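[retry 2/3] RDD family protein: previous attempt timed out, resubmitting with same input.
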Amino acid sequence: MAEAAARQRALVTPEGMDLRLRLAEASERAAAFLIDVAIIIGALVVMTILCLWGLAALGKDSGPAMAAIWLLGFFVLRNLYFILFEMTPRAATPGKRVLGLRVASRSGGPLTADAILGRNAMRELEVFLPLTFLLSHMETADAWISLTGLLWTGVFALMPLFNRDRLRAGDIAAGTWVVKAPKQKLLKDLAERDNGAHAAFAFTQAQLDAYGVKELHVLEDVLRRFDAKTVKAVAERIRRKIDWPDNPHESDGDFLDAYYRALRGRLETRLLFGKRRVDKFDRD
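[retry 2/3] RDD family protein: success.
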């Protein structure tokens, strides 16, 4: 239990919501990377077979062209495989998805293309560049050069073991980390859960117009996780924002549930008239 708590981190969103995340273990990251490498190698094998088939069909004169195609394919796989998959909404390569992992921004904001490009550009320096050099100069490189290449790769490969957030060099440079994002079953719509407590709350139109769709989604996530400390903090923040009167006997969970229902109803009603408030800064 203590070990699991040690992997927990607070992720504060731009709205001030404190969401709890669990960081990926170094072993999980390594396993995900090995799965991705296996996929890349499998794609290279298929590409090699196709290039050899093309060479046999077109004759020896096509040798340089086939070699160029193979090298281009290898370059694309090595450099774009991780980038393109991490730019998807799931922010995860197939290997990470198998292990239930994803990349996230340590700032709590959205994961940007610059961060993804930065963290994956570092992988070239961490792994591929020294290994490519060693493999291409295996017969001519002396022992010191080989040892230097192995130490270079080893230092970067073992870096996640020597920092508490299990960050590799690319994560440090790009401001990212890899977190657990297990596949979840489809949850019941929060609006369908009715304990009757929401009927005691009546919000004005001005109080409901304090937030938009973005905050509604964050609030829904808070209610689904229902971490007591987070629920209390979020409830206090919303009460201050909408000038809700103090009531020591009022349940934070009931208040958030009631506000979520009322805010969702308000936004859906506005949407029927073609008005969509994106977030609390969107003034129409």
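[retry 2/3] RDD family protein: Residues 2-123+160-180 form one domain.
[retry 2/3] clearing retry counter.
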